[in-house]
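can u do me a favor
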């Protein structure tokens, strides 16, 4: 092969391995991980409730904000999907999976804007693509993936507004804020962190607001407020909720914070990071240390430079004085991500309600900090250590069984598939218990005709008079026996509790044999008569 041919071949190889092509492959991987076997598992307890409210909104047109179930955006979006594609588990999870994929895609604009280099971009996107928590909660009908996507959109729009000064970016920022506030009550944490850092940038003279910023701010407030009013008033059906949703939300979630209904230690999320996201956590710690060391070296160099300048005669100052240092957007972005990460971890450590899905709000900035100073050696470490993430991801997202993991909180048991098969074969079913979710979701519309929900244990005479093919009761308030029925016990749902496992955390980390809490139901089926 001639020298020119070899050079041409090398150039073609280099082009084929461009950042864009690598990024596209990572994006495809992210999409596959989020959309593959999307209805593999039954709906989680919360998913079933969210889907049910969305179905009721679609079929009856009724929605009223209740802070226990977060903001209205998810319900309107999901109802729209049900209207387009039908009401099903898979359809309910399509938008979360799509938004989870877009979160990976939004890393690319940061690269094009110069805030990440090629290596940082690919590593950050790869971590977001295969992170067990990012994937799991992108396959999950909850508000958090909506909030995370809107957080990223808000960040990019705000950056573009500060760089280009165009009003349209201010409006996108406002729309993202308004939609986020219409989605879940933790959006103010994001706005608070971003707002504080913006004030710092302005105070330090690192950025300047556009000339027409007051006009853009006023228009942005109108856009955000308009979105909030439309959603919380249920598109004008309940205008009174516009005045009450804020005190209701604060009152409810402050009570949950003090009650610590789903509590845990202040380091609860650190344990989850160690359990599922260890490579990202370690690299984020390393990135923070690297950033601080680099900042100290830069400060020392600046002091030495100042001493040298002072030592030179006044006549020579003009000729040797260095030009003011330019604004390093990459370094400032990582400084922001470290602050964002630290304040997010602190905020969620303080909040009394400790639930696994809140981890992803801390994980997004953590991923960017992990990508700081991504040398070739550090890149190799990131890629090799990703095996840990892949194994954890496979276990929690793609195993169709009751998995003993804290990431799954009050997950409906796979036992319920057998229970629902029994219901499908029955003409009349009595549910003599207040434990029955997710049945209202799976038996909605015409399918609910054969089910009678009593909400409590009923007397045996009522069961006999009802001529039921199937009777379901809580195992804690059940019947010792029912004449003519065979008793079977099934898991309804299950969870991993910190309080049940706090004395054996290290053992669980390696053995995954923690104590699971669960609810059980007794199912009474007709006795088989011998021929």
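np, heres the sequence
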């Amino acid at each position: 092969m001639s020298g020119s041919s070899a050079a041409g071949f090398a150039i073609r190889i280099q082009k084929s391995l461009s950042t864009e092509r690598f990024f596209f492959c990572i994006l495809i991987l992210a999409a596959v991980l989020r959309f593959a076997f999307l209805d593999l598992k039954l709906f989680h307890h919360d998913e079933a409730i969210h889907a049910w409210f969305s179905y009721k909104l679609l079929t009856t047109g009724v929605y009223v904000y209740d802070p226990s179930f977060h903001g209205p955006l998810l319900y309107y979006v999901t109802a729209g999907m049900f209207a387009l594609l039908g009401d099903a588990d898979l359809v309910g999870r399509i938008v979360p999976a799509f938004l989870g994929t877009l979160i990976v895609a939004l890393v690319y604009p940061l690269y094009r804007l110069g805030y990440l280099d090629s290596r940082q971009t690919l590593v950050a996107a790869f971590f977001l693509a295969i992170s067990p928590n990012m994937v799991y909660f992108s396959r999950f009908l909850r508000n958090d993936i909506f909030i995370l996507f809107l957080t990223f959109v808000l960040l990019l729009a705000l950056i573009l507004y500060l760089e280009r000064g165009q009003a349209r970016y201010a409006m996108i920022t406002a729309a993202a804020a308004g939609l986020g506030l219409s989605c879940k009550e933790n959006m103010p944490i994001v706005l608070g962190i971003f707002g504080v850092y913006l004030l710092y940038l302005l105070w330090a003279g690192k950025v300047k607001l556009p000339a027409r910023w007051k006009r853009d701010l006023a228009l942005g407030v109108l856009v955000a407020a308009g979105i909030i009013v439309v959603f919380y008033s249920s598109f004008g059906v309940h205008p009174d909720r516009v005045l009450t949703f804020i005190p209701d939300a604060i009152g409810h979630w402050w009570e949950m914070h003090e009650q610590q209904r789903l509590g845990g230690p202040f380091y609860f999320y650190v344990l989850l990071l160690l359990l599922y996201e260890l490579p990202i956590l370690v690299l984020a710690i390393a990135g923070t240390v690297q950033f601080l060391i680099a900042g100290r070296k830069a400060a020392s160099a600046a002091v030495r430079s100042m001493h040298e300048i002072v030592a030179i005669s006044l006549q020579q100052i003009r000729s040797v004085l260095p030009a003011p240092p330019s604004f390093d957007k990459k370094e400032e972005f990582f400084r922001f991500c470290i602050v964002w990460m630290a304040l997010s971890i602190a905020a969620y450590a303080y909040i009394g309600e400790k639930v696994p899905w809140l981890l992803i709000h801390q994980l997004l900035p953590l991923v960017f900090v992990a990508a700081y100073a991504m040398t070739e050696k550090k890149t190799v470490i990131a890629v090799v250590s990703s095996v840990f993430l892949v194994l954890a991801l496979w276990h929690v997202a793609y195993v169709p069984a009751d998995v003993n993991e804290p990431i799954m909180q009050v997950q409906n048991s796979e036992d319920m598939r057998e229970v629902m098969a029994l219901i499908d074969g029955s003409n009349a079913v009595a549910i003599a218990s207040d434990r029955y979710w997710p049945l209202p979701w799976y038996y909605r519309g015409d399918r609910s005709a054969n089910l009678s929900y009593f909400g409590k244990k009923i007397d045996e005479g009522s069961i006999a008079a009802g001529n039921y093919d199937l009777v379901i009761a809580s195992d804690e308030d059940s019947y010792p026996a029912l004449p003519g029925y065979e008793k079977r016990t099934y898991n309804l749902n299950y969870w991993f509790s910190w309080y049940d496992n706090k004395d054996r955390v290290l053992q669980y980390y390696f053995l995954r044999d923690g104590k699971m809490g669960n609810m059980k139901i007794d199912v009474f089926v007709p006795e088989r008569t011998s021929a």
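The first strand starts at residue 411 and ends at 412. hope that helps!!
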